[in-house]
Write a structure and sequence with these properties.
three-stranded antiparallel sheet; 3 helices; 41% helix; alpha+beta; 71 residues
């Protein structure tokens, strides 16, 4: 997984301050993790789901299903 920019995470923290910790933890996990396959990502994010309109795009729930990001 390659995180292109931290800016969307920072913007989300400003817009959703109640989910700040979850957003920061998600960023750190994605940035520092080495995920070769979706199954490895699913071990860290059990809510991982395939984005049905794009092949090889994945949706991660953040903050108890309050926010979502694509991977």
């Amino acid at each position: 997984m390659h995180v292109i920019s931290r800016k969307p995470f920072n913007d989300a923290v400003r817009m959703h301050p109640n989910d700040r910790d979850a957003l920061i933890n998600t960023y750190i996990t994605l940035r520092g993790g080495k995920f070769e396959a979706p199954d490895q990502l699913r071990q860290v994010f059990p809510s991982l789901d395939n984005f049905k309109y794009r092949d090889k795009w994945w949706v991660i729930d953040i903050g108890g299903n309050n926010l979502r990001t694509t991977a």
